[in-house]
Amino acid sequence: MKTLFDVDNRLERLTIMGDSLVKLNEVVDWEKFRDLLERIFYVEDNRFGGRRHFDRVMMFKILILQSLYNLADDNTEYQINDRLSFQRFLGMDIGDKVPDAKTIWSYREKLTQSGQYKEIFDLYLGQLENAGIITRRGSIVDATFIERPRQNGGEKAGETEAKKSNRERQTDKDAKFAMKNGKRHFGFKNHIKVDSDSKLITQFSVTPANRHDGKEAPKVLDATDEEVYLDSCYRGEEMEAAIQKAAPNAKIHVIRKHDGYHEPTPEQLEANVPIQRIRQRVEHVFGYMTKSMGGKAVRCCGLIRATMNVALKNLAYNMRRTCFLNKLTRA
Predict the structure, then answer these.
(1) b/e for 86-124, b at 16 or more Cβ within 10 A?
(2) Region of 140 on the Ramachandran plot (φ > 0 left; ψ -120 to 50 alpha; else beta)
(3) SS3 206
(4) Which residues of the chain have pLDDT under 70?
(5) Could you read off the pLDDT of 265-292 as tens digits, one per residue?
(6) CB-hemisphere CA count at 13 Å for 24?
(7) CA distance 205 to 311
């Protein structure tokens, strides 16, 4: 028999079963983002005429949902309409109007063009630092490929000028090819610095896939780093000097392997063990994104949009990781 409390009973059941989005709302103070988001959309919000916009924080939470579950805009619209857990997370009632796919795209595009996605990432990072969750006693630097759907480039036989123009607009000229372990990748790279104690991402940089990891490492390091742990691809006098310059107060630990000319000494092999024990924690970050967050691929075109998507992915990971750390603290 249907009652007025059917929806509430279903939501209560979802909570008992362990709705992760409930925990996310408990951990993250979403209102901390409101001032920054309102400033970004100030001009649009103060225009004359037009329909009333959706709440900016709610729209931002939709982008976080997309990053958590790797959802495209159309699928996001459908899932919000379909899932009570999503509606509760967004603070919506079952009868409320859901933003359509075009509105979600427009919001993300406006945020992308503002160039302030890094400020949003740093805003949450600052909250974690103030809470003492990030220690910065050790920093791990590594990079992972962000795959993008490959394109069939080149002019087609009998192609009209209009079709050629459309094809060129949709061709991602920023995404590049790269080889690793005999496997070909196409897209971008997410270069990150991870706090070794908490496994939280504290800095990141997004580049085309063919950018060498070692050349980008100095951009994610700073004077606050005390210990830096690096894989063997970061070795070399020039790269290590640049890394030391970027983190002048840090002790640099690099895995030593055969460089094509010299075998590592027994002392170096022995020193690799504690370095690798700490450095491998960054693989847990990439593994979680791949297995529990729908993968690391992007659908967008261009480095700017890819950077926005990766920034949100890194932020969403930090939020999920905070939920886990909060659970450990309570235990």
Answers:
(1) bbbbbebeeeeebbeeebbeebbeebbebebbeebbbbb
(2) beta
(3) strand
(4) 1-5, 43-51, 152-158, 164-165, 167-168, 259-261, 328-331
(5) 888 889 889 999 999 999 999 999 999 9
(6) 21
(7) 9
- Report residue 238 as tokens: 């020039």
HSE of 21 in the Cβ direction (CA atoms, 13 Å)? 19
- For helices 303-330 and 281-292, give the axis angle rounded to 10 degrees: 110
CA nearest to 194, candidates 265, 266, 137, 154: 137
User: Please, what are the domains in the chain?
Assistant: 6-114 (no CATH), 135-151+169-330 (3.30.420)
Is 95 in contact with 18 (CB distance < 8 Å)?
A: no
CA 220 to mean position of chain CA atoms: 15
Whole-number Å distance between alpha carbons of 95 and 273: 57
